[in-house]
Amino acid sequence: MSPAALAATELRSLVSLLDDEDPGNLDAVQKRILEVGAPAIPLLEELRENSGPDLASRADALSRRLRFHGLRQEFRELAAAPDPDLEQGAWLIARFGHPDLDYAAYHARLNEMAQQVRRELPPGSGTEPAMQRLNHLLFSVLGFHGNEKRYYDPDNSYLNRVIDNRLGIPVSLSVLYLLLARRLGLPALGVAVPGHFLVGLRLGRNVCYLDAYNGGKLMNLSEVQKTVECGGRVFRPEHMAAAGTRDILIRMLRNLIPIYREQSQADRAEMLSSLVDILR
């Protein structure tokens, strides 16, 4: 019988065998469940919710692996594009941590934020007034800022949770800003300086740099250089080049990898590392 033809009662019986303590039997059961694929996920999650710690852990690990199989394929499709879409990539990363993510709802929330900025702009407003209104909305009205108390919380890297909590780390808050700037037609770009991440904004012939982690603080080039050097790092002009979408997504993934390793979740760290390899 093929995996797809496995009857519901047989699949439930198969999943129930995860409580077998014989290593050989358990390995065979796990391999068979992985062969079955996505249809096993609801039963695994039901088992996780209604079992003790050991069995719940087995069910959760298998469910994650099955969900990850589909996610990894979507990453391959994203990476195959000549210019991957930043928003699509950010939602895929968010789905790694939150598999049931309703990305359409969050996409709509970003649209509404951008629309709110538009409503407050006089007709014919240029780049600078639009930037000022966006900054006011994000950092003064909505209060987005860096999560200094829990910097290493994985949710700081997942865009849906950044939006929910209004907290994040430099790259995730910068991605939020970039996605809103794109909706507003603002000439914004990501800038991956050593130890930090900024948004570059072109204002006429000049470029200013916005620190989304620190409440939207605006800096000129010399101030950026001073910030980098005060952090004990060497500043070079090439650090100010625009970061490509692949580099931004890889940075988001690499921020998560050591966090999961520190939390003794090596399987998650390995999955994320494989996504980095796909994007390279």
A few lines on this structure:
The protein has 280 residues and is of the alpha+beta class. The chain has twelve helices and six strands. α4 runs antiparallel to α5, α6 (103-119) crosses α7 and α6 (103-119) crosses α9 (170-184).
Report the order of strands and helices: HHHHHHHEHEHEEEEHHH
Which regions contain 5 or more consecutive residues with pLDDT less than 50?
Answer: none
The proportion of residues in beta strands is 5-15%
Proportion of helical residues: 55-70%
Number of domains: 2
| Mean model confidence by pLDDT | 93
The assigned structural class equals: alpha+beta
Write the layout of secondary structure elements.
Layout: H1 8-16, H2 23-36, H3 41-49, H4 53-80, H5 86-97, H6 103-119, H7 127-141, E1 145-146, H8 159-165, E2 167-168, H9 170-184, E3 188-191, E4 198-203, E5 206-211, E6 217-219, H10 221-230, H11 245-262, H12 266-279
Parallel strand pairs: 1-2
Antiparallel strand pairs: 3-4, 4-5, 5-6
Helix pairs in contact: 3-4, 4-5, 4-12, 5-11, 6-7, 6-9, 7-9, 11-12
Describe the structure.
This protein is of the alpha+beta class. It folds into two domains: 3-80, no CATH class; 86-279, C8orf32 fold (Roll). It is built from twelve helices and six strands. The chain has helices at residues 8-16, 23-36, 41-49, 53-80, 86-97, 103-119, 127-141, 159-165, 170-184, 221-230, 245-262, 266-279; strands spanning 145-146, 167-168, 188-191, 198-203, 206-211, 217-219. The strands form two sheets. A four-stranded antiparallel β-sheet has the order 3-4-5-6. A hairpin with a 6-residue loop joins strand 3 and strand 4. Helix 5 (86-97) runs parallel beside helix 11 (245-262), helix 7 (127-141) packs across helix 9 and helix 11 runs antiparallel to helix 12 (266-279). The protein is elongated and about 70 Å long. The mean pLDDT is 93.
